[in-house]
Design goal:
Helices cover 43% and strands 38% of the residues. It is built from four helices and six strands; from the N terminus they run ααββαββββα. It has a six-stranded mixed β-sheet with strand order 2-1-6-5-4-3.
Length: 135
């Protein structure tokens, strides 16, 4: 998962997007539903990159078969400190087909929900544009 970690840490969202499978499913820490598809997942991750401040990965865990990974991170949204984890599954081609994010504490999750809510119109437009250009 070095490529994903390095791309995120460098803020290279094009490189992050290149690591996503077309059928990736993103599960948000603050939304009830999951978001299927590369275009919406890439757009959400770009939104997150705009919202998170002082983001850093602190630990990486890998499952026995090498297809499951957990990246523990620390960041800030406004004045709220967050700790979280990206749970990543790779498909047979080595692309990310599942990305689940969890964060704590509740006040940090609430700050994230508010900040992402403010981004969501832009995220939806970006996802629509990416879907159209991929077709």
């Amino acid at each position: 998962m070095r490529a994903f970690r390095e791309a995120v840490e460098a803020g290279d969202m094009d490189a992050v997007e290149a690591l996503l499978a077309e059928d990736v499913v993103f599960t948000s820490p603050v939304a009830f539903k999951s978001y299927p598809g590369k275009a919406i997942t890439a757009a959400i991750l770009r939104g997150v990159a705009r919202v998170f401040e002082d983001f850093r990965y602190e630990r990486e865990l890998t499952g026995g078969d090498g297809r499951d990974h957990a990246l523990v991170f620390a960041t800030r949204v406004g004045d709220r400190e967050l700790t979280g984890c990206d749970f990543i599954h790779l498909n047979e081609d080595g692309l990310i087909d599942e990305l689940t994010v969890m964060v704590r504490p509740l006040s940090g999750a609430q700050a994230l929900a508010a900040a992402m809510g403010a981004q969501f119109e832009e995220i939806a437009k970006e996802a629509e544009a990416r879907s159209a250009s991929a077709s």
